[in-house]
Design brief:
It comes from Acetoanaerobium pronyense. This is Rubrerythrin. The protein has helices at 8-13, 16-19, 21-28; strands spanning 33-35, 41-42, 51-53. It has 54 residues and is α+β, with helices and mostly antiparallel strands. A hairpin with a 5-residue loop joins strand 1 (33-35) and strand 2 (41-42). Strands 2-1-3 form a three-stranded antiparallel beta sheet, with no helix packed on it.
Length: 54
């Protein structure tokens, strides 16, 4: 499973946000979903572990 398939919630735990911040910004730009578990946001529902439409 590559980074493009992982949940943003999991990527954050792997220091992805610190190391690949530019890529992360693209994943959350124009977000439409928020994770009920950790509060992270994403454009695509499948990128969060407990998504809810905003």
């Amino acid at each position: 499973m590559g980074d493009k398939d992982k949940k943003i919630c999991k990527l954050a735990k792997e220091d992805y946000l610190k190391d690949e911040f530019k890529k992360y910004k693209e994943l959350v730009k124009d977000a439409r979903y928020v994770c009920r578990k950790c509060g992270r946001v994403a454009v695509k529902e499948k990128r969060l572990c407990k998504p809810e439409k905003m």
